[in-house]
């Protein structure tokens, strides 16, 4: 009699557990009620074989709403080639020797939660920081510390996104660009960078009435970006602007060449 009662209890308990799990799964899939955060709901939401915090590396805590947001990496890009003999600044107002490099080397191989490159993964720690408007205007050539990296990127493709004409809004002429030589990188966010020609490198009048510039040569021809799809060579200063890390139009990253000191048709 005792054995029969035990068997009945086990069967009933199993049915009860299956009923509970089935209801939980239906609630999870249907979205009814108040579903728990993905990192504490008992399910493998990103199908990586790991469930919830702390087992799933995509979770930062039990309250994390997504199991997908782990920082990911792609294979590191090769180091930039050494500067060709005779490499020099094309802008006579910028008396520096550029570091010839590539977009993937500048932005690095660490991918953030939005899909763009992180600051920590960048190839040049000696970059400018801050956003437009943090100080009056962008620094003119003489105001940029000698420790800040000055780069040259050859053969970048101009994109049709995030383009703005000179004098509009904050005055900077902007465009996005990408590396056409890296078909192995499928995510354009990890082979693209935003380019900005600072308005303050043109002829402007300061608040005290003094005239500044131009620091672009030739001016104003340098203030107009060629059409999307064209290949150009670019020189300028690497900058990280943290305000753009969640902006798709900025490749979900803070990396920029800003200010661009000069560009030319790709040779």
Short description:
By secondary structure, the protein is α/β, with parallel strands linked by helices. The protein has helices at 2-30, 103-107; strands at residues 72-73, 99-101, 110-111, 128-129, 150-158, 173-178, 192-197, 204-205, 211-212, 231-240, 255-265.
Question: How would you describe what is shown here?
Answer:
- The protein has about 270 residues and is α/β, with parallel strands linked by helices.
- It has 3 domains: about 1-35; about 35-70, no CATH class; about 70-265, OB fold (Dihydrolipoamide Acetyltransferase, E2P).
- It has helices at about 1-30, 105; strands at about 70-75, 100, 110, 130, 150-160, 175-180, 190-195, 205, 210, 230-240, 255-265.
- The strands form 3 sheets. It has a 5-stranded mixed beta barrel with strand order 5-6-7-11-10. The protein has a two-stranded antiparallel ribbon with strand order 1-3.
- The longest helix has 29 residues, at about 1-30.
- It is elongated and about 65 Å long.
Query: Structural class, from secondary structure content?
Result: alpha/beta
List the strand order in the largest sheet.
Answer: 5-6-7-11-10
Largest sheet, strands/sense/barrel? 5 strands, mixed, barrel
CATH superfamily of the largest domain: Nucleic acid-binding proteins
End-to-end Cα distance: 93 Å
Rg of Cα set? 26 Å
**CA-based shape:** elongated
- Mind telling me the CATH class of the largest domain? Mainly Beta
Q: How many H/I helices?
A: 2
Low-confidence regions = 2-31
Helix content: 10-25%
The tally of beta strands, per DSSP, is 11
List the helices and strands in order.
Answer: HEEHEEEEEEEEE
């Amino acid at each position: 009699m005792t054995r029969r009662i035990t068997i009945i209890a086990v069967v009933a308990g199993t049915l009860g557990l299956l009923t509970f799990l089935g209801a939980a799964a239906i609630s999870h899939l249907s979205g009814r009620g108040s579903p728990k955060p993905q990192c504490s709901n008992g399910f493998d939401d990103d199908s990586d074989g790991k469930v919830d915090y702390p087992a799933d590396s995509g979770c930062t805590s039990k309250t994390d709403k997504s199991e997908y947001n782990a920082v990911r990496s792609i294979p590191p890009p090769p180091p930039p080639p050494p500067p060709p003999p005779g490499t020099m600044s094309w802008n006579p107002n910028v008396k520096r020797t550029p570091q010839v490099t590539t977009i993937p080397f500048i932005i690095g191989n660490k991918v953030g939660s939005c899909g763009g490159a992180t600051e920590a993964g960048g190839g040049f720690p000696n970059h400018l920081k801050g956003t437009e408007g943090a100080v009056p205007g962008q620094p003119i050539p003489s105001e940029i510390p000698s420790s800040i990296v000055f780069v040259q990127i050859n053969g970048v493709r101009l994109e049709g996104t995030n383009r703005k004409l000179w004098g509009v809004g904050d005055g900077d002429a902007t465009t996005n660009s990408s590396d056409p030589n890296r078909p192995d990188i499928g995510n354009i966010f990890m082979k693209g960078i935003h380019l900005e020609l600072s308005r303050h490198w043109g002829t402007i009048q300061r608040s005290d009435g003094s005239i500044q510039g131009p620091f672009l040569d030739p001016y104003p021809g340098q203030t107009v970006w060629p059409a999307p799809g064209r290949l150009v060579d670019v020189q300028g200063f690497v900058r990280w602007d943290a305000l753009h890390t969640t902006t798709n139009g900025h490749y979900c990253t803070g990396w920029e060449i800003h200010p661009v000191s000069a560009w030319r048709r790709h040779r």
